[in-house]
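Hello,

Our lab assistant flagged a job as stuck in the queue for most of the afternoon. It eventually completed. Since we weren't sure the result was trustworthy after the delay, we are filing this so someone can double-check. Below is the sequence as submitted and the structure that was eventually returned. Let us know if re-running is recommended.
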Amino acid sequence: MSHIASVEHVEVGSEIEALLLESSLIKKFRPHYNIASKDGTSPYYIHITREKYPKPVINHLPQSAIAGPFLSRLVARKILRSFRRIAPYHTESPCFYRHLELCHPCPDDPHTSTIAYQKNITLLKKLLRGQFKQVLRQAVKTLDFETAAALRDLLHQPTPPEEYVTNPNLLADRRQEALQSLRSTMNYEPITNNPLHRIECFDVANLSGSAVTGAMTVAINGQLSPQHYRHFTLSSGNDDVARLKEMLTRRLKTDWPTPDLLVLDGGKSQLSIVNWSIPTIALAKNEEIIYTTDGQKIKLDRRHPGLQLLQRLRDEAHRFSRRLHHKHRSAIIKP
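-- returned structure --
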């Protein structure tokens, strides 16, 4: 501890990105206390075997390693387990993972194609090297939307470790870019000078009018803020617009901080409830069209940083509202 002069950190988008970035930084800077372990063990590396059906192995050999160094075998295993959902591979016979679809195509299946299996291994190598964007582009290009969706769910916004090394403030810059692009889109500057410091999104979940719940998700300075999320138990009925109005009426009566923007899950009809001065928009599902209270209909490119921020907020609202909804439903159907 006496040798520490300062402490810095780099914010990343996921745990896997953090582990791969740590490995990249250790490899680049070879810090003494990461390379020379106190227990005398060497760092761990991930290799891919050379055989008809290659598989990943973990050892202490740096030569020809696909990924590493990692400070523990557990970290290397965790990374491999995560990537196995995207790039299945074979480890043993008889293969237990075949039935979990984590080894597909599986060498235990006599109809397995060596070429198809090798494609998975090639994909695994790219993931271990942090080539996330390349994998994502290739998946979309070949219409492999299943792989693209799995990578998106695992990494959210996949970013190679090298980009964090080049710009340690990458995530903060991206959040500011999202807010700036959203402000420009909504004409919130310089006329109104709306900082979009606090954005709130609202969603309703129900099943045939029963166990109706609502959720409020929040972004502070462009970053999702789960500690500010709130659940609402709402009145039964079949009118989602009325339930949305009930939720917003209750929220605006609280002493919580005033939002700079309210986002309603839905279309033009949802905006009919607006009777407040806070800037409010609706985000329609599927079409991803933004509706404004002054009658605008805004269609943005799906790569637009501001739209992606709204989508993340909306998706979080879906997830969060369903969590309470399922809890209520479970209580209802208990014998």
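-- support follow-up --
The delay was a queue issue, not a problem with the job. The result is valid. The chain has a mean pLDDT of 85. The CA atoms of residues 106 and 216 lie 44 Å apart.
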